[in-house]
Backbone:
């Protein structure tokens, strides 16, 4: 029983950064821009959040710093791909390399000592403790509550039900038609990328500000790329993307716990470690065929 | 003959001296046009006459080199569709600008309000209102991508109406419609003009133009030939549209009587029977087409583009599968074969888009062997020496001004066409399928290409020539057939062709007699 409660709690916790990243990437891609800067943006968000929190002593100010860095990263991506019309793959990978490099460089400059710097991480909330052991599942960080109860529904509503969301979807599907209807294509893509960048950076900051309370190299470890896959798995829909994040996170949390169970010790742990990624690949292979990409995916827009 | 009415209070849209050049080509030469409130004003002309160009200028999709636009007597500067919409001008282009995965209501609401508030109910009210007043029936909650082309066109009209347009331009609106939808569209247009809108109806179909419009302005080769009442006789409209008397038989080339072999064979070297081919929309674009091309003959296919020519050439190239019917080349059934097998059967093709038939980044030499790589392969490797010798031979024989190592992309249009000609003709095809062979070429290259086609005919090949250039057809072809809506609607010897009858046939007003198949 504790095994299952622990597993479910870990699933929600591990899914949190993926939710922020997947929703952020969904916004970018629905506007027609594949943002491969996501890995670097999460990394930069993790570092900026930690460094600011360490300097000010306030995780909340750290969170705000991560948000600002994410908006800037989105704006850089928008400048490259929307204003300059550069290739989105190259721009995104370049942005990731640059942001990781800058974050590591700044890390060395600021935290020169050999000791691992730590901050007081954000506290866990436990609103359902009265339910006894079952309530343990909901012993989570505030950012997890924000992700599931605020970010996901609001992001869904804005994208699917608001005028701004209609414009994001229109410029991602048929920018010519949107332009002809009076929508400012460039402005809409800038906003979508900046909102997306902010969400990605908060997803990265979740590691340093909440889970670990410290910054280590390779802290994101490819989770940005997982989000890119989850967006495709979710067919650019927020609900399906969240579902994908939960499935990945469940398998990810499960394999950690399987290692210590009797019988699984015989298996090479690398095999178990690969399990969630294999699940993503399998899910993509099964559900990713014939998916309808946004119509203007990867295409810069220029008025003819 | 130019309609020179002074702009009265009833004039909604007024174009004065619109001139638009593309390089050396004058697409619009000082066009004047008045569209009144409450009238359907047809803009008639052949392909390339400049109808769409001048209306794109009016809607801000393209910018005139000179001229002015007035709406209700006031000078307006139309720099983009947004300016045109603000001035009350709406346009339904042939290529719809709709967001296909979205609903009709979402398409109507797009760009209508900023911020977060999205009032889809207003869009639904617009749709309901338009349905009641103008008979434009469309489900506001349907996904646009699932609608028929006719329904999508209605959504485009709704979009214009939702933005309070008072002048509605429709670019060949019936080209994509089935007959019942045409009737519904016409009924809608009548109700719109009754409401005081001015409608510009671009078309090349005489019957439609006469059925719907109060006045007709005719364009020919970028110039306004005049504005006449919609009741003008079809023959007169056709004459205005096609114009010049047909150039006489000025060919010095031998007629097919002089050519050897195959003459008199009732079935041609290329014989097509009851052919049916699906277009991009899945409906049959070629529907019951039959024709024969004899050895030593050039058969010209005349017709307004979009009547099945592209699909016919694709099919004969092996790039498209037929729905039914048969294609026989020199007694061998080639129905439904692929490109390589078509070439093998003796079909050579010079398609409309010459750039798509060559690989621009590869050298002239490689492009020249592209259709027959097997013959230049030795032990799994390409025989570079043979390829180069082959290239040098063809460059010499077809007077291509290029080196064998030059990239095709670096060549002029005339030389690109010569590379294509050399590749196809060097195989001595029994059947040659040629589409728009001289489009965009200069005079010298045009003469050369034509002389090569005539030489093929003399050598006994069966040549099928598709062209929108009537002069070219009359110069080169021995026989003409007219294609309309995927069928051959008329046939004539070149000497018997007169512009009025050709114009009527091309515009779908089938003349008595002469219909093949």
Residues:
């Amino acid at each position: 029983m504790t095994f299952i409660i622990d597993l479910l709690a870990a699933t929600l916790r591990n899914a949190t950064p993926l939710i922020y990243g997947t929703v952020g990437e969904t916004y970018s891609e629905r506007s027609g821009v594949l943002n491969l800067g996501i890995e670097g943006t999460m990394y930069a968000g993790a570092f900026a959040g930690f460094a600011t929190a360490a300097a000010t002593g306030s995780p909340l100010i750290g969170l705000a710093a991560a948000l600002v860095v994410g908006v800037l990263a989105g704006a850089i991506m928008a400048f490259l791909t929307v204003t300059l019309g550069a290739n989105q793959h190259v721009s995104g990978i370049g942005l990731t390399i640059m942001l990781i490099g800058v974050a590591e460089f700044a890390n060395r400059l600021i935290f020169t000592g050999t000791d691992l710097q730590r901050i007081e991480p954000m506290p866990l909330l436990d609103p359902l403790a009265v339910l006894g052991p079952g309530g343990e599942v909901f012993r989570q960080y505030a950012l997890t509550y924000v992700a599931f109860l605020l970010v996901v529904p609001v992001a869904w509503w804005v994208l699917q039900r608001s005028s701004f969301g209609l414009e994001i979807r229109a410029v991602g599907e048929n920018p010519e038609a949107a332009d002809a209807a009076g929508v400012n294509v460039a402005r809409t893509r800038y906003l979508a990328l900046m909102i997306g960048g902010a969400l990605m950076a908060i997803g990265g900051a979740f590691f340093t500000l909440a889970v670990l309370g410290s910054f280590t190299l390779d802290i994101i470890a490819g989770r940005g790329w997982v989000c890119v896959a989850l967006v495709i798995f979710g067919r650019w829909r927020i609900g399906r993307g969240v579902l994908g994040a939960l499935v990945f996170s469940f398998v990810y949390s499960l394999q950690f716990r399987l290692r210590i169970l009797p019988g699984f010790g015989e298996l090479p742990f690398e095999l178990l470690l690969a399990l969630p990624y294999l699940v993503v690949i399998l899910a993509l292979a099964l559900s990713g065929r014939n998916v309808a990409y946004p119509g203007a995916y990867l295409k810069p827009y220029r008025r003819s | 003959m130019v309609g020179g009415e002074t702009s009265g209070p009833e004039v909604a849209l007024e174009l004065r001296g619109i001139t638009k050049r593309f390089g050396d080509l004058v697409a619009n030469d000082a066009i004047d046009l008045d569209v009144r409130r409450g009238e359907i004003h047809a803009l008639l002309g052949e392909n390339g006459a400049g109808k769409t160009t001048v209306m794109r200028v009016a809607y801000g999709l393209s910018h005139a080199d000179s001229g002015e636009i007035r709406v209700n007597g006031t000078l307006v500067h139309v720099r983009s569709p947004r300016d045109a919409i603000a001035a009350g001008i709406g346009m339904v282009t042939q290529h719809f600008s709709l967001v296909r995965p979205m609903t009709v209501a979402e398409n109507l609401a797009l760009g209508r309000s900023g911020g977060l508030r999205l009032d889809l109910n207003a869009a639904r009210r617009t749709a309901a209102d338009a349905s009641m007043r103008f008979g434009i029936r469309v489900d506001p909650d349907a996904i646009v991508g699932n609608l028929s082309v006719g329904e999508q066109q209605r959504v485009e009209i709704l979009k214009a109406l939702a933005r309070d347009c008072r002048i509605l331009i429709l670019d060949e609106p019936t080209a994509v419609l089935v007959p019942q939808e045409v009737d519904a569209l016409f009924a809608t247009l009548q109700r719109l003009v009754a409401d005081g809108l001015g409608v510009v109806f671009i078309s090349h179909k005489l019957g439609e133009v006469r059925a719907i419009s109060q006045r007709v302005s005719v364009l020919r080769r970028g110039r306004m030939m005049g504005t006449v009442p919609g009741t003008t006789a079809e023959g007169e409209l056709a004459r205005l549209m096609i114009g010049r008397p047909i150039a006489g038989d000025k060919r010095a080339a031998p007629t097919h009587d002089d050519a050897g072999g195959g003459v008199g064979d009732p079935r041609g070297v290329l014989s097509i029977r009851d052919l049916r081919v699906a277009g991009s929309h899945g409906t049959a674009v070629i529907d019951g087409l039959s024709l024969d091309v004899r050895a030593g003959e050039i058969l010209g296919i005349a017709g307004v583009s979009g009547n099945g020519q592209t699909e016919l050439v694709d099919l004969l190239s092996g790039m498209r599968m037929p729905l039914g019917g048969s294609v026989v080349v020199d007694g061998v059934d080639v129905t439904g074969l692929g490109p390589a097998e078509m070439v093998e059967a003796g079909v050579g093709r010079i398609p409309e888009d010459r750039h798509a038939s060559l690989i621009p980044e590869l050298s002239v030499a490689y492009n020249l062997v592209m259709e027959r790589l097997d013959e230049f392969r030795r032990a799994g490797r390409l025989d570079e020496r043979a390829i180069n010798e082959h290239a040098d031979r063809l460059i010499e024989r077809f007077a291509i001004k290029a080196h064998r190592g030059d990239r095709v992309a670096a060549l002029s249009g005339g030389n690109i066409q010569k590379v294509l000609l050399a590749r196809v003709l060097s195989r001595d095809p029994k059947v040659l399928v040629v589409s728009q062979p001289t489009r965009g070429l200069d005079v010298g290259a045009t003469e050369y290409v034509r002389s090569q086609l005539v030489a093929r005919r003399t050598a006994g090949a069966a040549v099928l020539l598709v062209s929108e250039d009537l002069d070219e057809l009359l110069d080169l072809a021995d026989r003409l057939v007219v294609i309309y809506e995927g069928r051959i609607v008329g046939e004539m010897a070149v000497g018997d062709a007169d512009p009025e009858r050709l114009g009527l046939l091309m515009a779908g007003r089938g003349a008595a007699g002469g219909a093949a198949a």
The two ends of chain B are 40 Å apart (CA to CA).
